[in-house]
């Protein structure tokens, strides 16, 4: 059974840390009549062993997401929703997320360097023979017997 202490405090998409980010919530501000803003809460589950990545606002595999415990650090990503001129992710948000991806970036750099330094014999090559063209038989010809 899922349990959550999550409450909407603004509009947007929010990872539910109480449920290991396998649940996320969409908060929508209701029309204001009087008093403080009220929000409608919609809850969704990520499927197939995925979790909600608060940085990209998508369900993805845990290895590709910011750690669930850090999700609240990225709730501000929601502030960019609906602003036509706003970047999806600001430099500040990318800077905060960079530490989670340093290991992946280093592995990518090593792989890229290894590919660049590979000798031609190390690469897989396949010799391709040029196609030979055969002429079609003349229109009223019979095969020889």
From TrEMBL:
<dbReference type="GO" id="GO:0008061">
    <property type="term" value="F:chitin binding"/>
</dbReference>
<feature type="region of interest" description="Disordered">
    <location>
        <begin position="109"/>
        <end position="145"/>
    </location>
</feature>
<feature type="compositionally biased region" description="Basic and acidic residues">
    <location>
        <begin position="113"/>
        <end position="132"/>
    </location>
</feature>
<protein>
    <submittedName>
        <fullName>Cuticular protein, putative</fullName>
    </submittedName>
</protein>
<feature type="compositionally biased region" description="Pro residues">
    <location>
        <begin position="135"/>
        <end position="145"/>
    </location>
</feature>
<dbReference type="InterPro" id="IPR002557">
    <property type="entry name" value="Chitin-bd_dom"/>
</dbReference>
<dbReference type="GO" id="GO:0005576">
    <property type="term" value="C:extracellular region"/>
</dbReference>
<dbReference type="Pfam" id="PF01607">
    <property type="entry name" value="CBM_14"/>
</dbReference>
<dbReference type="InterPro" id="IPR036508">
    <property type="entry name" value="Chitin-bd_dom_sf"/>
</dbReference>
<feature type="domain" description="Chitin-binding type-2">
    <location>
        <begin position="5"/>
        <end position="70"/>
    </location>
</feature>
<dbReference type="InterPro" id="IPR052976">
    <property type="entry name" value="Scoloptoxin-like"/>
</dbReference>
